[in-house]
Amino acid sequence: MDETEWQRMHQAMGGGAGWGGRPGHHPVTPPQPPISPAHHPAAPPQPPVPPGHGWPGSPPAQPPPPAQPGPHPHPHLPQPGPPGHPAHQAQPVHPVHPVPEATGHIPLPPAVAGTGGAVLAVLLIGPAGAGKTTVARHWASTRPVPTAHISLDDVREWVCSGFADPQAGWNEHSEAQYRLARRTCGFAARNYLANGISCILDDAVFPDRPVVGLGGWKRHVGPALLPVVLLPGLEIVLERNAARSGNRRLSDEEVARIHGRMAGWYGSGLPIIDNSHLDVEGTARALDEALARALA
């Protein structure tokens, strides 16, 4: 077989380049069956290509995109892990309550806002010259709700002929007129309260006569009566009594005796206001704050 016939036979059998030798020099390898994908060996990992040194014909490597600014992770919260990590699961959201402002080891008392629009029945107690009538009238006239002022001395002076003047001495006639005036004031106070109008009464009630004094007022007005004691110093009481006129001005000896008996209220637990250095407006404000604390 010459060279030309050998090449023609080789091409007919599917030979390619490199098969140009003579018979016997290159044994023909029988065709192999195809390898299934399951038994195909994995390609060996390729080394990473440094930036700018890609394979010939590949596009140039692009630099990585700049990092976008975002919220910084909270240092005390768990950070999410890779996908499927338990941190990616829904976590319960707990409400954040504001921390109250610290005020030290001693809690501050609540601020007193006054009596507001409460319907009250008040008994202002004090010696002659304490300023009970003036303060009670000012407090009643400055409240934001209807309030009446009932003065025991005014009701006692309704009696014109046969009035038992206390300057002439305290006797059975003075006691009878006093009891009558107190019952009248109590009836008027209940009538005002039944119509939604607050009231304040003033009287020189003695602590050593609980049945006739404070107990009698509560029987006539009601158990919700709020008593407050107005008790300035003796010098202030004497000075204010000297500025009085008519049958309301008492002797200095009588004023001192009444003031001494009023000192017994200090052990009673009732609110006591020393208005020795307070004007009428300041005393009325202190009275309203004391009543607010009694209501609370």
Describe this structure in words.
The protein has helices at 3-12, 132-142, 152-156, 172-194, 214-221, 234-242, 252-262, 280-295; strands at 121-125, 147-151, 198-203, 226-230, 272-273. 31% of the residues lie in helices and 8% in strands. It has a five-stranded parallel β-sheet with strand order 2-3-1-4-5, with helices on both faces. With 296 residues, it is of the alpha/beta class.
Provide a quick synopsis of the model:
31% of the residues lie in helices and 8% in strands. The chain is an alpha/beta fold.
What global shape is seen? elongated
Low-confidence stretches: 16-28, 52-56
Strand content: 5-15%
The Rg value, from CA coordinates, equals 53 Å
**Number of contiguous helices:** 8
CATH architecture classification of the domain at 121-295: 3-Layer(aba) Sandwich
Physical arrangement of strands within the biggest beta sheet = 2-3-1-4-5
Structural class: alpha/beta
Provide the residue-averaged pLDDT.
76
What is the makeup of the main sheet? 5 strands, parallel
How many DSSP-defined strands? 5
Helix percent reads: 25-40%
Q: What's the end-to-end separation, in Å?
A: 130 Å
Q: What's the CATH class label of the domain at 121-295?
A: Alpha Beta
